[in-house]
Amino acid sequence: MMPTTAAVDKAPAKAPKSVLQDSQQIERAAALIRMGARMQVLESETDLSYERLLRLYKEVSGKSPSKGQLPFSTDWFLSWQENIHSSLFLNIYEYLSKSMDMDSIDILTKAYRLYSEQIVAAEVDPLLSFTRAWRLVKFVDANMLNMTQCSGCGGKFVTELYENPRQYVCGLCSPPARAGKCKGERTLMLH
């Protein structure tokens, strides 16, 4: 049976793409690229096609994007220095999430900028890339990681879900034996 012309006419029409929305998507993608976001992050957080993102990436950064998969392990966020950096970032992110009504990617970029400012002020090398910060938020949203309060200092740190909050002691209160002993100029040093 052939559809009638009335049925064909009632098919939903595709909404025209807004030039303003397209411009906002390009600006968001360019800002993410400048912060070091990988292509997978750009594809996930914008509505732009892969081809447009690729051209934009090359134009903004002056090079082709990195190839390969994103890291998919929670272990990186749990080792000593990486945990301190991840916890600093996630505390900032959670504070902004509770106090600002914005898209999560906009909160993430603001939190990452604030994290970067703190790292510069502390004169240590940043260990958390923007892509890892994005992945950390995804892990927390998926209930693969969470924040646990240290029973020693009261700070909140990135931990696995099954961490016992009554007995949890952070890496600052109880650092590993070799922590802070490396000779790097801009690493965390314990006195």
From TrEMBL:
The gene is flhC. Its cofactor is Zn(2+). This is Flagellar transcriptional regulator FlhC. Binds 1 zinc ion per subunit. Keywords: Activator, Bacterial flagellum biogenesis, Cell projection, Cilium, Cytoplasm, DNA-binding, Flagellum, Metal-binding, Transcription, Transcription regulation, Zinc. It is found in: Cytoplasm. Heterohexamer composed of two FlhC and four FlhD subunits. Each FlhC binds a FlhD dimer, forming a heterotrimer, and a hexamer assembles by dimerization of two heterotrimers. Its main location: cytoplasm. Belongs to the FlhC family. Functions in complex with FlhD as a master transcriptional regulator that regulates transcription of several flagellar and non-flagellar operons by binding to their promoter region. Activates expression of class 2 flagellar genes, including fliA, which is a flagellum-specific sigma factor that turns on the class 3 genes. Also regulates genes whose products function in a variety of physiological pathways. Coiled coil: none annotated. Pfam families: FlhC (PF05280). NCBIfam families: PRK12722.1. Zn(2+) binds at C150, C153, C170, C173. The lineage of its organism: Bacteria, Pseudomonadati, Pseudomonadota, Betaproteobacteria, Burkholderiales.
